[in-house]
Specification:
Blueprint: H1 2-130, H2 144-156, H3 160-173, H4 180-193, H5 197-210, H6 217-230, H7 234-247, H8 252-264
Helix pairs in contact: 1-2, 2-3, 3-4, 4-5, 4-6, 5-6, 6-7, 6-8, 7-8
Length: 285
Amino acid sequence: MKKSLVLLGVFLLATPLAALAGTKEEIIRLQSDILQLQEQIRLIQKGMDENSGVLKSLLEQLNDQIAKSNMVMENLNQSLVNQKADAANVASQVKQEIQKLSLKLDDTNNRVAGVYQKLEENQVKTASMRAAPPGAEAGAGLEPDQVYNQAYNDYLMGNFDLAITGFQDFVTNYPNNEYSDNALHYLGVAFMEQGRFEQAIQAFDQVINLHPKGDKTPVAFYKKALAYQDLQKNEESIDTLRKLITLYPESQEAKLAAQELEKLGVAVQEAPPARTPAGRRRPRD
């Protein structure tokens, strides 16, 4: 009996101890779980703090970019305003220039109309002067400048037959007049207008030979060269252009002659023939 009681007491004592041992292990596991949860919460909190910092930085960058964009937009708007103002000023200036040109054009038209009117009046005077009584000589009773003006007016009006006749009469009757070189020059030009290039060259030769110091002489050289080209005589044309440049290097026609020679593909000055070692000219091939 005593033995049974002893065993029962041992069992009863062992049972609470076993229970207490199981509860302690569970507490330790719970504590471990709690620590893990706390660590996870700490990590989550840290991640949130970092994300919050990144978001904050992004927001600051976005705000800066918006501010810069607003500044750019303001600059663009100001530029557009300035461009509109400049365009308005340019349009106003263009309008003023157009008005000035219009006034100049009207003035030019009036002057041209006046010139035509004078030409018509001169034509009428010329016709009345030519209507000489039967038996009277052409140009009889007229001053040299009147005879020249008649021929020149015919030239301006395109009446080249009458102009040629008038200029020929003038140089025949007044060979020493101050306008004789002009008359010969326009005589040559009138011949060229009619395609009579040989006669034009003869007239220009008279200008060159009779009035070497006249103001029409360089022009006569140049026109003569062009007449040779019309006759397909390029060698003669080149020779004439080179003479013009040599004799009248400062004239405007000399510049035109140089351009003409360039078109023809030749040099302004002909290169001298090569010499043999003995100093004699090498014969041409």
